[in-house]
């Protein structure tokens, strides 16, 4: 027993897995916070859209096109325009909410489109945008940007052409172009039957009052859910599918109610251009609809009206026969649409440029240098920093910032329009967790590279002591950015950091001033901005796995408080 080592019970060795577990818990917390911000943003956007979608300012339209005195909502996000003499003057459409998922540098944009009677774009104007003011301002000043969309036609995506984005606001311009393409690429609406499905349509197909809710899916179809939120069927209108089958004086629109198994249960005439006496004759003959009940749409699509001996209703022969043909035609069109959607391989178009290729090489080089002995070479380090500052920063502009992180967390990940920046964001957040190295701050960030190049300037001896008083600034800035994003305050987060200065041709004054001042201070106090002011770097350091990751920090308390705040807001 005397040969055994004596172990001091006061010395406790931490388990090697505890820092890793703590780091994973922090990552989960940050991800949950991003998800909650995203959910709350979608809720607020839906509420704002529900209030404003039926209200288009005629003055706003008049600023874009002349001779418009009235705008009448038709449904499917389309307004009919009329002049002072009540003559048709074209149509108007907004890109929101259809293109709410198209994200630019920080968020979506809403564009007003003016269409002629052939549904071709003749004018466009930016109504609002969640992108940074500098990028939005560059788009507004570019007099050649919006005219390039003239001639694009609603319902004809094959006619869309490549666009030239505004220099300095490429991502914002590409997002606006895609938003317009999404809005115009939707199905061509039925101008004869423009009204979307609504709660009143349920009453036309159900005889007795029931606690049901209608949830529109598109211009043709809607879900029917019960009080528990369970889908019990679908509601389909024939208008956009078959509005060219004419009866005595014009076409008719039918509503079909399907059960959960896809079988028709009830059918009702919704609207018709025929005379009311003929309509009444049809409504008074319940046996007419019996032929089309308890059938799937596949069966209706191939229904032979002569073989089924579908006869016209006495006194309304042409109207009733046209309604029967409308049902069959609409079912056929619906099946063709469903078949095309099921079999067509959706090709995701990624906007990849030479700058995205160079960004990939920069990321690869940063990993090679940062993870090998090359990081100790002075020549390699200086050459790499010069490249980061001169090319990666000033040419590509693919820097991580609070505006990008919070904007993409709330609005969505714009990886298709900005694959290079998306790759930088993903790599920069993954490496600190998996490799214990924050390579973004040390080997990718151009602003950090410039600070490394000037760090051998005149030293300010009292600078470190003075700057240490600002150690809470990055955390406060980061938490404030989350709150601003949560409350959807109209504050320019890009102005809080110097990174937007690298897009110098559209950068705001505050970003440029911050960049210059922070570099000057860093020449006297090495890496001053990175060490004492960078909120983005503080977030990456917070997620970096270290030997002390299992220790509770004030940042953990802030994250917990933000999560609680988000839950309270969500419940409220």
Short description:
This protein has 21 helices and ten strands. By secondary structure, the chain is α+β, with helices and mostly antiparallel strands. The chain has a five-stranded antiparallel beta sheet, with helices on both faces.
Task: Explain this structure.
The chain is elongated. It folds into 3 domains: 54-96 and 99-184, no CATH class; 199-343, no CATH class; 354-571, no CATH class. It is of the alpha+beta class and 572 residues long. A hairpin with a 4-residue loop joins strand 6 and strand 7 (221-225). It has a 5-stranded antiparallel sheet with strand order 1-2-3-4-5, sandwiched between helices. Strands 6-7-8-9-10 form a 5-stranded antiparallel sheet, with helices on both faces. The longest helix is centred in the N-terminal third of the chain and has 36 residues, at 17-52. It has helices at 17-52, 58-64, 133-141, 170-184, 199-205, 276-283, 287-290, 297-301, 317-343, 354-370, 378-396, 402-411, 419-435, 439-444, 446-453, 463-467, 473-487, 509-524, 528-532, 535-543, 554-571; strands at 70-75, 78-82, 88-94, 109-115, 121-129, 213-216, 221-225, 231-237, 252-259, 264-272. Helix 1 (17-52) crosses helix 12, helix 1 runs parallel beside helix 21 (554-571) and helix 17 (473-487) runs parallel beside helix 21.
